[in-house]
Fold this protein.
Amino acid sequence: MTERQFHIQGEEAMTAFGERLARLFQGGERCYLQGDLGAGKTTLVRGILQGRGHRGAVKSPTYTLIEPYELGEHVFYHLDLYRLGDPEELEWIGIRDLFSDQAVSLIEWPERGAGILPTPDLAVRIMHAGDARDVFLTAQSEQGERIVNQLAEA
């Protein structure tokens, strides 16, 4: 389980970091994002989606739970589980159908889906560091190891 820390200064830098991260997704990855409200989870997702060619708005799907983005040969699913009442609700929305070789799942507040969500390939923890953010990437699979190592080399 490899972990790397990145110090990110400002919203533009967080978006750019997401764009760099986006280039490393090959399909099938599950990326879980944790952090306090306002830490920058959605900003990072916005950067990932922009890095794969999305040009529209990206807002957190707090009320809809899931927002799909068809970008090239992959579908990126952005989930926000903050308002999830019970992890079992994920079964009702067909969560297992989202995890395919052609899909990348970006899940905010994954702890709310404990017991239902599978282990992620990449765990992202964002912490406030004054007016900056410390982003910790933890690989939890071979795909995650590849992503963390390639990002650290870039």
